[in-house]
Write a structure and sequence with these properties.
The complex is a heterodimer of chains A (232) and B (290). By secondary structure, chain A is of the alpha/beta class. Chain A contains nine helices and ten strands. Chain A has helices spanning 42-50, 72-78, 95-101, 113-119, 121-125, 136-148, 166-181, 193-199, 222-230, and strands at residues 4-13, 16-26, 31-35, 60-62, 65-66, 80-83, 154-158, 185-190, 202-207, 210-215. Chain A has a six-stranded mixed beta sheet, with helices on both faces. The longest helix of chain A is centred in the C-terminal third of the chain and has 16 residues, at 166-181. The termini of chain A are far apart. Chain B is globular. Chain B has helices at residues 2-32, 39-55, 61-82, 93-114, 141-163, 165-175, 177-182, 187-212, 220-234, 239-259, 264-278; strands at 130-132, 138-140. The relative contact order of chain B is 0.21. Chain B has one domain (2-116, 138-278): ABC transporter involved in vitamin B12 uptake, BtuC, CATH 1.10.3470. The chains are: A alpha/beta (232), B mainly alpha (290). Chain A binds chain B through residues 50-52, 71-73, 76-77, 81-82, 84, 88, 90-93, 97, 100-102, 104-106, 132, 146, 150, and chain B through 165, 168-169, 171-172, 174-176, 178-187, 288-290.
């Protein structure tokens, strides 16, 4: 049985349709990359999964349980955590308070404040700073740590390398490797194709709200992927 | 000289009542970005609930206060869940209009039930008891108690906001409600709890209003004005600033009153305007990058 099963997912912003019937299966422990250009519907897809947009009834199942239509806070408690685009840290909370709030849902699992600090020692040093005063890379670490504290079955990462220096992106992806090593299923949404394909077992390429290509990174040529990415 | 010191002290202590008026307003705005136009009417309503508890149910004042706090907090929860929740995320205007309507409804309901007569709550010896601070300086026990309560309320709220999970949920929800939901926070529940808390403070303000002053069904907007002024003098989002704002209003009112009995209220409004001219963001603004 799939951990996450998506069938015929559509999404709308007012009158304009952003997703046109997305199907996706993610197995437990699997890492999936979603790639595609700006406006392809990647973030919209993640927001629909999290309950921030209203998906069609019965379009999303988590561990066999229908979650489409549940409020976002219940979906979070059911085991889906999002590292949102632009990090969305809470400005009036300190680093430690931000990370700690990730555990608000009270799910148990391997991730604790100590484990997060072990993975990101820089954050421990700055734990009492205001979260939004940190560097971009450190803020991204806070956002990842905060999502991990929920001990999710499925971790969704939206553009976690955006705007960061290449060296910092490497550090961030090293942490993603160790999260995958924990057995957590991870979805990475990226415009940086190489980085995303390196960590992923499978990928989906989105184009204009549809899946234009899917497969395993080793089995599809870069030329085919670029074709699906740019739609040429 | 001693007279003036007495005047100043009385003004400072009067600021305690204004602080209590303002804290509930500040709390609702801080967590929910809700400007509650009915805030003053809810204070008056709490005063009437206290009156009923003491005069009809014959409860002692302290027990009556506990009842008022519970009733108002429960009412705040229901008000948020049943009515104000529908205004969340619909811009600044819709909560303003809804609470403005609520204000009119409350005033007329109270007129209907309690008549237009001015009322007051008899608290026995507490009303006239005074404390000597040496020399010719004495202050009333009740104003001292009100100021003590105001400070205690602020300290407790500060502890709640900084030391508890619920407090962090309040701050996170205020920062970014959507992301707070992603943390598993039920923001509707958080808003309802914040409103319950704000109404508990309103209840305290209402009980003291009932004992210290006379009140009538149409006195809400005047109290709302003082609450607004205290919050804005102090700077939005700062609880200690609200205390400073309350004290500035109280002191300027006491000084004005001493110069000429007709100037009391006017001079506190003038003080408010003066602060607004010099420091438009209040004395202790807590601007957040959002």
């Amino acid at each position: 049985m799939s951990l996450l099963s998506v069938r015929g997912l559509t999404a709308f912003y007012g009158d304009s349709q952003a997703l046109f019937g997305i199907d996706m299966e993610i197995a437990a422990g699997e890492t999936v990359a979603i790639i595609g250009s700006n406006g392809a519907g990647k973030s919209t897809f993640l927001r629909s999964i999290c309950g921030l947009l209203a998906p069609p009834a019965d379009s999303i199942h988590l561990n066999g349980r229908p979650i489409a239509g549940l409020p976002a806070n219940q979906i979070a408690r059911a085991g889906i955590a999002l590292v949102p685009e632009g990090r969305r840290l809470f400005p009036s909370l300190s680093v430690e308070e931000n990370i700690g709030l990730g555990g608000y849902g009270g799910r148990s699992g391997p991730w604790t404040l100590k484990r997060v600090y072990d993975m990101f020692p820089d954050l421990y040093i700055r734990r009492s700073h205001a979260a939004t005063k940190l560097s971009g890379g450190q803020q991204q670490m806070v956002a990842i740590g905060r999502a991990l504290m929920a001990n999710p079955d499925l971790l969704l990462c939206d553009e976690i390398s955006l705007g960061l220096a290449p060296r910092v992106v490497k550090d961030i992806y090293r942490s993603i490797d160790s999260i995958i090593g924990e057995g957590t299923s991870v979805v990475v949404v990226e415009q940086d194709i190489a980085q995303a394909l390196r960590v992923a077992d499978r990928f989906y390429c989105f184009q204009e709200g549809r899946v234009s290509l899917g497969g395993r990174p080793g089995e599809v040529s870069m030329a085919t992927i670029s074709g699906a990415y740019f739609g040429v | 000289m001693t007279d003036w010191l007495n005047t100043l002290l009385q003004g400072v202590l009067l600021g305690g009542l204004y602080t209590l008026f303002a804290t509930g307003l500040s709390l609702a705005f801080g967590v929910m970005r809700l400007v509650n136009i009915a805030h003053g009417d809810l204070i008056v309503l709490a005063a009437y609930v206290a009156l009923v508890a003491v005069e009809t149910l014959h409860l002692p004042v302290l027990a009556a206060a506990a009842v008022v706090i519970l009733v108002m907090a429960a009412g705040g929860y229901v008000l948020q869940r049943g009515l104000l929740t529908h205004t969340v995320g619909r811009g600044i205007l819709s909560p303003l209009l809804v609470t403005f309507g609520l204000s009119i409804i409350l005033q007329n309901l109270m007129l209907e039930i309690f008549s237009a007569d001015s009322r007051g709550l008899q608290a026995g010896a507490l009303e006239t008891a005074s404390v000597s601070l040496g020399g010719d300086i004495t202050v009333g026990a009740l104003p001292l108690m009100i100021m003590g309560t105001a400070i205690a309320v602020i300290v407790l709220l500060q502890l709640l906001f900084t030391r508890t999970t619920l407090g962090r949920a309040f701050r996170a929800t205020s920062d970014d409600g959507e992301t707070a939901q992603l943390m598993g926070i039920d923001t509707k529940q958080v808003y309802a709890l914040a409103m319950a808390l704000a109404m508990a403070v309103v209840a305290v303000a209402g009980v003291y209003t009932a004992i210290r002053t006379s009140f009538d069904p149409l006195g809400g907007p005047n109290r709302l004005l003082f609450a607004f002024e205290a919050v804005i003098i102090g700077g939005l989002g700062s609880l200690w600033g609200t205390l400073a704002g309350g004290i500035i209003l109280g002191v300027s009112q006491a000084i004005g009153f001493r110069l000429d009995p007709g100037w009391g209220t006017l001079s506190s409004h003038l003080a408010f305007l003066a602060v607004l001219v010099v420091r438009p963001n209040g004395l202790f603004p807590r601007t957040r990058d959002r």
